[in-house]
Amino acid sequence: MNADRLRSFYPHAGFVLVYILWGINLASLKIGGREWDSLVFNGLRFASMIPMLWVYTYFYYRSRSLKIQIAGRDLLLICGLGILNAIGMEALLQYALQFSNSANGAVLGRGFMPVITVLFALIAGQVRLTWRILIGIPLALCSVIIIVSGGVDGFHLGGETFKGDILLLMRSVMGAIYLIGMNRLVLRYPLPLLISLEMTAGALSLLPFVLLRADAAYYAAISSTGWISLIYTSLLATALGFSIHNWSLAKLGPFKSSAYGYLLPVTAAIAGFIFLHESISLYQCLGGVGVLAAMYLVQRDRSQKVKQTLLSEQTAKL
To answer: Which of 296, 12, 255 minimizes the C-alpha distance to 135?
Structure first.
């Protein structure tokens, strides 16, 4: 019984690790962003992982005497999710922030994703509302608003940010769609194949930007710090982060998985304090406590059993 309880804790620990990696990655992106064009950076980030991912996928299948195969409809879905992730989420976030601010991005671009996900799940009959969810999700959202509300660039709505805010909300909708679509696939296929296909589709969608915006002189001007930022983002934040994320997603389902997104402002603030010597305000401390309390409520809600009728032996092997 104790062993079963310990195993059930693994996907939760996986999401905590993911958002630690992604929180550090925000600091890394700030450092790398001083030198890199964002679209070139993300294009190289996706493309640099493709050889490693496909080599690993090949040996994964070979060691298990499996054939690499995927249904045509699912192939279109995973490629679509890869493009959605690379352009519809990453690039849209970058573009939307040109018309809004980072605080609004944290609330509208990420904070609303669990809210939208639970609405989709309710419509699909995958979850039912309980008192823990009714308290936990609003508490988490309000806590994120508290975290990002301090200072002159805190969270606020108005005509000057309206265009960017609408785009940020679209990004949250796309994030919910990504979670639900990927949840369907991780129950059918091994993660190495899905990650390889997703990153390949994302890299191909960003390839034109890399070719048009960068040349040999551009790369030569990048310092060693800039390259270290790219390596961290590619290997740890993206390859390792998305692998753990999607493995944990298969165990918890899209709703509980999306709720962990509220940890990002907390881990990002801690990473900024450690690596960028940024200060941590009382707002951030209070908001962080609220986020952790909300996570406890949502993840303790044992009644939320997402329907996973496609769960197979493949999932157990991962």
So the answer is: 296
Looking at per-residue pLDDT, the higher value among 72 and 296 belongs to 72
Tens digit of each residue's pLDDT (9 = 90 or more) over 127-171:
677 777 778 778 877 777 776 665 545 556 666 777 777 888 888
- Among left, alpha and beta (phi > 0; psi -120 to 50; other), residue 65 is left
- Taking the C-alpha atoms of residue 3 and residue 65, their distance in angstroms, rounded to an integer, is 30
Alpha carbon distance 33, 297 (integer Å): 36
Distance CA 38, CA 220 (A): 17
Tens digits of per-residue pLDDT, 93-105?
A: 667 766 765 556 6
Helices (H) and strands (E) in the chain, counts: 17, 0
Listed by start position, the domains of the chain span 14-317
Amino acid at 43: G
pTM of the model: 0.71
The residue type of 181 is G
